[in-house]
Structure prediction request, 68 residues.
Amino acid sequence: MPVVDPPTKANFYANDLGLETDGVKNGIVAFELPHLSIFFIAADEYGQYLELPGQPGSKYPVPGASIV
Prediction:
């Protein structure tokens, strides 16, 4: 999920909710729970991690494309 301030999110989830994290690494905060992973990333860096179907460089085909 894109956020404005990853360190603030990390502090809130770690200190106020008691979740464990390794802190902010490369602008990303991760929390691992049983059967659930939560990731926060700086909003201004979010676009470079987003891979939309049909976009150049995407691993995913355009919706409705035939499978080869």
Summary: Strands lie at 2-3, 24-25, 28-33, 36-42. The longest strand covers residues 36-42.
